[in-house]
Amino acid sequence: MNKLGTLLKNHELNKAIPYARNLSPANLYDDIVEFIDSDNDNLIWYTVILNLLLEKESPVLHNMLYNIFAFILNNFDGAPDVQLYHARRALELSNEKDPLYPELLCNLLRLNYEPDEMVSDEEAKKIAQKVLEIDPNNDFVHDRIEEGLYK
Predict the structure, then answer these.
(1) Rg of the chain in Å (alpha carbons)
(2) How many CB atoms lie within 10 A of CB 90?
(3) Which of 29, 130, 18 shows the shortest CA–CA distance to 71?
């Protein structure tokens, strides 16, 4: 178990939060996913990210939460709504100059067909066009177009 996971297992939030604050986003994500994998029913990790969001809300943290609820905890009741909230909020906090922006747009596109149609076909088509304006070679959008989406 990684250090963050150990602190969380031991109910040491007063140490876990400052420790998490000093991790890179990639390491924070990996540590939290490892914790979730070891204890799927324990949501104490959410307190850490929530605290970080309250300190400084960012598209990176919202994207992290989108990914956790889209790919790790997607079977929880309400997960699609949580995904949609964090996908939209990450986008609101970002802009086209952000290297993460095309990925954030693609998160909304996923919600057009997976798990439910949380994003309308009309909105998805506009988003796909926007992604291709920014990144004309975006594989995700091109693959979906080949599947017959966003026409």
Answers:
(1) 17
(2) 27
(3) 29
Burial of 124 (0-12, 13-18, 19+ CB in 10 A): buried
Distance CA 55, CA 62 (A): 13
Please check whether residue 100 is in contact with residue 60, taking contact to mean a CB–CB distance below 8 angstroms.
yes
Q: Residue 55 is encoded by which pair of tokens? A: 């300190």
For the chain, the domains span: 1-56, 65-151
DSSP letter string, 100-113: THHHHHHHHHHTTT
Taking only the tens place, the pLDDT of each residue in 38-66 is 999 999 999 999 999 999 999 999 999 99
CB 150 within 8 A of CB 144: yes
The answer to whether residues 49 and 32 touch, using CB atoms and an 8 Å cutoff, is yes
Q: Do 36 and 5 form a contact (C-beta atoms < 8 A)? A: no
* Cα 112 from Cα 106, distance rounded (Å): 10
pLDDT at 105: 97
Residue 30: its H or E element: helix 25-38
Fold type of domain 65-151 = 1.25.40
